[in-house]
Amino acid sequence: AQLRLVRDGIVICEDAIASLKRFKDDAKEVAEGYECGITLQKFSDVKEGDVFECFKLEEYRD
After folding, report:
1. Contact in structure between 36 and 21 (CB atoms under 8 Å)
2. Residue 41 carries which DSSP code?
3. pTM, entire model
4. Annotated Gene Ontology MF terms (predicted)?
5. How many angstroms from the chain centroid is the CA of residue 50?
6. CATH code for the domain defined by 2-55
């Protein structure tokens, strides 16, 4: 999945999720409201208050 990191209303980066964990276990998804750990592929300067917007790109063919 792709992730957009927003800080103070400004998009800081768009990156891919390298890993997602719930407790110490790998996870494919985490329900809203639950804590999790996210590792990004390229970006590591995450700060308190940053907002993650996750999205999935899909290609449609007619």
Report:
1. yes
2. S
3. 0.75
4. translation initiation factor activity
5. 11
6. 2.40.30.10
